[in-house]
Design goal:
The chain is built from 15 helices and 20 strands. By secondary structure, it is α/β, with parallel strands linked by helices. The strands form five sheets. A seven-stranded mixed beta sheet has the order 12-13-14-11-10-16-17, with helices on both faces. Strands 7-6-5-8-9-19 form a six-stranded mixed beta sheet, sandwiched between helices.
Length: about 500
């Protein structure tokens, strides 16, 4: 596939098309210019790619390669990513508008992920199980074959690595399908993997809309496992296909994560974390702390401090020194966020800051939206239940621990939560009671490749990252070696 091609700035409407019949066009949300383009994968090309992946899986020797040999290739991929860090960061900045410093951190994360799974690949041990007879029993891990990895637009290179690295480490071939809204990073990862010595065909990219190429990929008879990160509705649709085909599926879906501030919290630290937890990445994060619950005696004080800190955030082009909030990833997503805020107004919400696009010539051509804080909503309001996936924070008071737990757990999601308190016992109680896959206590939005990640309820199933992240892409096989002294009898 061809790489991104820079083009002059052009005028676009508020909902620019991102695709023609045979080309995906990436639009730089900072100014509406074209960031690059990639060819759309046809149905025939998709079929050929999957079959090529299956052939590579069966004939390349990758699945039977000794783990330390696979680890060398994964380490070489990590080195290649690190070597091209700046170019990849710049490309991601143009592809989806993240601040440049954050894009560099995303590449660092991808480097660390490949290095981690190189280590896991080389050191992972399976079980010798307790026998109950004259035999030795143990387990081994076998790859599935061809894995479909479908990733979202918000953090392409990081999310790509989170799926590709463990899937390759487990011995699989991978077909990577990035979002049509951020298509430029995935082909670069394939090039780096090829240069690192990964056998041809084991990692390929297909491009196009989810409803077309994505649907064709998950339904392909040679795809043996599906890993998807994205919206809950799409996750359900993929799960239905996987259920019909009786193949495993991993889903990392949406969130409406609660961020809790108790009266005994370090308020300076808590306020900073609440603001960072929602407005980092312009709120375009599945774990964004989009609901802040503040204990009633300190509600007005803490909320006022949050508003002051939010208004002070530097909104600017993503390559501006000191930028804290860049544009949203696309114009159509900016419009979606604006509609979300308009509905919150209609529901009776008070817009304490933000609530519109920033003014000024430097913002005129970009997909910007001001960091927004809203209160006055009931916890059952749609704006407190549905994911905005943008720079929008709703504030809610609570009176007791039971009141907090009822409100915080009162959504369909359960991805993450944050708790600010100086009481270890309270942190333990609330952390265990809240329905979330990740619990941050006196911190927020921490993530490390070595620790499992995933959600409860509609936020997904299974766990990525950590040792579990490699086992996700492998099948357990039990093996028995007989030690019988006598021939086996029919009746035992």
């Amino acid at each position: 596939m061809t790489g991104p091609v820079c083009a002059p700035k052009r005028n676009l409407d508020m909902n620019p098309p991102t695709a023609t019949e045979d080309v995906l066009v990436s639009i730089d949300p900072a100014d509406g210019s074209e960031a690059g383009r990639v060819p759309v994968t046809s149905e025939a090309e998709l079929d050929a790619a999957v079959r090529r992946a299956r052939h590579a899986f069966e004939t390349s020797g990758w699945k039977s390669m000794l783990p330390h040999r696979r680890a060398l290739v994964l380490s070489a991929i990590a080195a290649g990513l690190e070597h091209k860090k700046e170019a990849l960061a710049q490309l991601q900045m143009r592809d989806n508008g993240k601040p440049l410093a954050e894009c560099r951190a995303m590449v660092d994360s991808a480097v660390g992920t490949f290095r981690y799974y190189a280590g896991v690949c080389e050191t992972l041990e399976t079980d010798v199980t307790p026998p109950r007879g004259d035999y030795v029993s143990f387990t081994v891990l076998e790859p599935f074959g061809v894995v479909a990895a479908i990733t979202p637009w918000n953090s392409p290179i990081m999310n790509d690595a989170t799926k590709v690295a463990p899937a390759l480490a487990a011995g699989n071939a991978v077909i990577l399908k990035p979002s049509e809204d951020s298509p430029l990073l995935a082909p670069e990862l394939v090039r780096i993997a090829d240069e690192a010595g990964l056998p041809q065909g084991l990692l390929q990219v297909v491009q196009g809309r989810g409803a077309d190429i994505g649907a064709g990929l998950v339904a392909h008879p040679e795809v043996a496992m599906i890993s998807f990160t994205g919206g809950t509705a799409t996750g359900r649709a993929i799960a239905r296909v996987a259920a019909e085909r009786l193949i495993p599926v991993a889903l990392e879906l949406g969130g409406k994560s609660p961020h809790v501030v108790f009266s005994d919290a370090d308020r300076t630290q808590a306020v900073a974390a609440v603001v960072a937890g929602i407005f980092g990445s312009a709120g375009q994060s599945c774990v964004a702390g989009s609901r802040v619950f503040i204990e009633r005696p300190i509600y007005e004080e803490v909320l006022a401090a949050i508003v002051v800190r939010t208004r002070a955030l530097k909104v600017a082009r993503p390559d501006t020194p000191g930028v804290e909030v860049g544009p949203l990833a696309s114009f159509h997503h900016r419009d979606r966020v604006a509609r979300f805020v308009d509905r919150a107004r209609d529901e009776g919400g008070r817009i304490l800051c933000g609530g519109h696009a920033p003014e000024g010539p430097e913002f005129a051509d970009g997909a910007y939206y001001l960091p927004t804080v809203i209160d006055g909503l009931a916890p059952t309001a749609a704006s407190c239940q549905e994911e905005a996936f943008g720079p929008v924070l709703v504030a809610l008071p609570f009176d007791t621990e039971d009141d907090l737990i009822r409100q915080a757990n009162g959504t369909a999601f359960g991805l993450a939560c944050g708790i600010w308190t100086e009481s270890f016992k309270r942190a333990w109680r609330i952390g265990r009671a809240l329905e979330a896959g990740s619990v941050w206590i006196n911190t927020y939005k921490q993530s490390v490749t070595s620790t499992p990640f995933g959600g409860f309820k509609n936020s997904g199933i299974v766990r990525e990252k950590g040792i579990d992240g490699l086992k996700l892409y492998a099948q357990v096989k039990s093996m028995y070696f007989g030690l019988h002294d006598k021939p086996m009898s029919v009746a035992r």
